[in-house]
Structures are given as structure tokens and as C-alpha cells.
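Class, discuss our next protein.
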Amino acid sequence: MSLYCGTACRRKFFWCYRLLSTYVTKTRYLFELKEDDDACKKAQQTGAFYLFHNLAPLLQKSEHQYLAPQYSLLELERLLGKFGQDSQILEDSVLIGCSEQQEAWFALDLGLNSSSSINASLQKAEMETALQGSFIKLTKALFELNVKDASLLSTAQALLRWHDAHQFCSRSGQPTKKNVSGSKRVCPSNNIIYYPQVAPVVITLVSDGTRCLLVRQSSFPKGMYSALAGFCDIGESLEETVRREIAEEVGLEVDRLHYSASQHWPFPNSTLMIACHATVKPGQTELQVNLKELEAAAWFSRDEVATVLRRNNPSNQQQSGAVPFWLPPKLAIAHQLIKEWVEKPTCSPLPA
């Protein structure tokens, strides 16, 4: 028995070391590409490119989901030549990741820098035909992508949008210059370096022990309810943001809270969603909804929420009246937060 246990432990240690080693190697390779322009240019020669047009990714429909095709540098240069595009546009590509085999992945938008909107729309249609795909808004396609493509395209769109919006220095007004990987922009006149930024947002599921609080904004799809969410103000801690948002939007005071997980979210701009659970005292659950922030808010039992979670396509069933409401799709951290509350009712929160 001891021999078997020793062998099993060594195998487990080797496997863990192998995973760690792969991750470290990949992470350091990406760091090199971000910091070394020559290394990044070299990586483009053997890398793969994801294409966008005015921040909409090129996608191909496959059964019940979208797939994001990749293109080699050679294929991309041929495409650009076919449509009379200068290959210099490749300088606008951004690094978005790499495989474990160190194949670098880049994203390139073929529509953002077009000088003519009429010409851009014409080329978009022609490109879609040539590439056998469609440029589809990420807001429409995100939940029909696999996890890998959803993450990569979200990162890509956020970076492409940031570069498009930060082409001039806020201090000098002069044009900034992007490095090859797109990890930063520099103002040549004063050497100020600008890095892509994300805005922290807390998303909190409030519970009184037996029920959870779900809300909807007017911008939500019809019938969808979610957890409370709000941007962090300057000077606030995450805990302070949670307490303020809940007080502002539904008039409740937090008794306890604890952190759950986080997720990058590309809409409307690049945000970091920080998911938390919060509890309020059972005797202090009367809602005072801030109608300037929310359209509706209500308490739901664990059974009610569990029933909706079990639905295969709750949005369609809600529209037909089969269910009273529906929840964000599985890819959204709000869904995971709600599911966690349903499945782990005994988790112990920490004091706020």
C-alpha cells in the first residue's frame, strides 16, 4: 500500500509540475512578446489572426454555435491584396494570447480606420463572401461561442476599442504610437506611456437567508432578471462599493458579504466584474427601489430560482409565458453567482 501511495503521489506531483511549467512558459512567452517589438513581429510570421470589422468579429455558423476562424499571416496578406488593402494595416493588430505550443494569436480590425464608410460597407460584404462568414456584433454572438473563443474575442474587442479611442495624448494632444503587441501606447513628444485599463464593477447577489434579490434594468432583454451591479467610485474599497450600491438601488443595509469570483466583461467598455454574495438581516428586507437606477426588484425563493435555472431555453419560454422570468446565460458571471447560491446554501459569509 505504501509503495502504491508513494508512486501515486509522485505521479500527482509530476503532473502538477508539468501544468505549472506549461503555464509559466506560456506566460513568460507572452510577456516577451509584449515587451519586445522584434520578438512580436517574428511571432506574427507563424501566428494566427482573428478578424474584426468595426469591432464586430468574423464568425462562421456551425450547428447551434458560432466559431471564430483563424488566418495565417500569408492568408491575411492575400486577402488584403485581393481587396486593395495595404499590408501596413497589419501594424494595427493586437496580441490577445497564445497556445501552449507558443503559437501567438492576434486580432485585427479591417474597418476601424477606413476613410470612407460607403467603401467600408462594400468591402465588408465582399469580405464576408470571400471568407464564408459574417461580421457579427459580439453582444449578439457572445453566448453562442465556446468558452475559449468568447474569452479571446472579448479581450480582442476590448483592446481594439481602447486603441481606437486613445490615439492622442491627453497631455500634449499629439498622436500616440502603439507598440507592436498593442500592450501600450506612447506619446513621442513627452514619452508618456498609456496602458489599456479596465473599470472595476461589483456584481452582488443579495440574500436574506432563504431568498435572493433579483433586479432588472430597462436595458435588459424582456423578462431577464440579474444580480445588482455598479461601478466602483474613486476612493472606495470593494466592500464599500457593495454596501453603497445596495443602499442606493434597493434601500437595504448589508449585514455580511464575501467574495465569489471575477470575470472580464467587454460591454459597454472593458470592465472587471467582481462577484460577491451579501446577506441582509431577515427583519430588514423591505425594498425601496430606486427607479432612476432600476426598473424592478423582487425577492425570489430558492425553489423559484432553481426551477428557472433548469430550463434549457428560459428566454423563449418566458416570452411564451411558461416561466415568470429568466436569468443571464451561463457564460455570464451573474449566472454563476446565482447558481452558486442555489447549490451552496450553507456557505459561510465573512463580516463586511
